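Give me structure tokens for this 565-residue protein.
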Amino acid sequence: SYLGARCALYEFGNEPDYNSISVDDYLNAWNATIPLLRHINSAARFIGPVVSNDVGNHDFLQGYLQGVKSSGILPDAISFHYYPCYNDSESSCLDKATDYKDAALGVRRLVKSILGRELPVGITEWNYDPGNPPPAYGDKSSFIQQFSTEAIKSMIAGGVAFACQFDAASYGGYGRLDMFDVQNGTAKPQFVTLAAMIKEYRLANITASVPTAPPARTSLLSRGSSAICSTNDSGPNEPTALLDDTFGNWGFWQLAEKDMPGWCAVHLSVATSKVLFAWYSDYSFDYMENYGLSPQDYDISVSANSTNGSDGSWQTVLSVRGNHARAREHLISFMGMSWIRMMALTMQPQASQPYMRIDEFQVFDAGQLGDNTLFFSGDSITGTAFSRSQDSRPSIADDVAHCAPQKYPLMINGGFGGQTSAGAVQEIASWQTLLPDMHYWLLGWGTNDALSGLSPELFRANLQSIATAILQKGDVPVFAHIPYTSYHNLPGLDAEVQSLNHVIDEVAAANNLIAGPDLYDLIRSHPEYLDTDGLHPNAAGSVAINALWFQTLKSHLNLGGAACS
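Here you go.
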């Protein structure tokens, strides 16, 4: 009551799992206190459970999530603390600076699997080592600058919504964790590094990006083109980042809810009669969800005479309402035009953050692109493998472009965490409506079916329904083998996976389909491609999965006779 409405953000407790507070006791306190605090300040946000690592001792985070799901008193965000090193060598600790991504993705997957939706995830205490004191190499400028830079980039890649470095100047770790010298108040190298990163991303009144010289004619017309956005765009590195061929990084078109509507436009210097326009909002995991950061309502327009994306005559060629996907494509007549513009009108109704974000536009020459449109549909393994995060590249699109630069393909990741083949049967028609120009449907279903013990007969019926729906549209379904998994060393799981893979082969043969990549053999032969959970691919595994898909499809993609390994 003392703070009233003066504080808008509260974190409940501090490392209860480390301080021997049981999850039941913490939940009792949470369930009794948070409703009272929300009554005092309904605008405030309440965060928990502040565990000491990404899972919490004794699976504290899992127990907390199950408890709040049962009580219905959900947090506004999930928080944990993370120090990747403990008495490591300097080189080993630097190698672990990128561990924040996997830690955050693991927390996000756990939240989604239990609550059925995502919440913002924050790391509210982080640094290199929690020791007291931590290793002396933390005093070295070269170490702490590199570690901090890589750590922040890793958090960005993992979708961390907020983070708090420990500490400013409390003589933490006998001063080695401080950002300021407590003796003289001067800033230390870690503060200088973080301040420089913040300055880089805090841009105002963005103007048009400087166009670069375009390469030889390629299907991807937006490469080398210029973009410009309305002045209410608050995203970092925009509008340059909108066409930089990077996905899910800290560079995006951003509109606060209060600032909508807003627009970004692309100026194309190459004439063509039709374009395929694609946009990507890679800040949520599942392909469709109403709490992501993609626009719900938007318009697409074109112009022949604009000079700055705002003036001139504009023709609205498409109005989209009720979108919940995080990536879409649209075939647009472009004869005589030189500009294409997206006007974002509204954000998702339950967005996990108060923003709309799009991190990439791609504009293709539809005629030159042809049928080289790839939609990856599958579970969380698909979602992970085809994210195109920087440490998971080259992607299959990169592999194709390296082989035949003029044939850069359109690639959309349609992964859904926890989804089964039965779910795909229910949703396939809606996906086809959203993505009418995707020709190759590259299917990664079966892991969750194997985990749930689905019978081969039901699995076969589901796959046949999926294949039939795609074939009836004149498109090409390709089923991958279910990857090998060591998940929890579950008894009988490997036999179940192999049984369902046999069904995949039978369905492919019965429908005369392209034989998909053998992801089972790939992962079994290279278990180092698995993440620590034994289920999802790590970065190297994602690269290998993309490469195997490329080998599977390269003879079908009309690459102009290019022979690439």
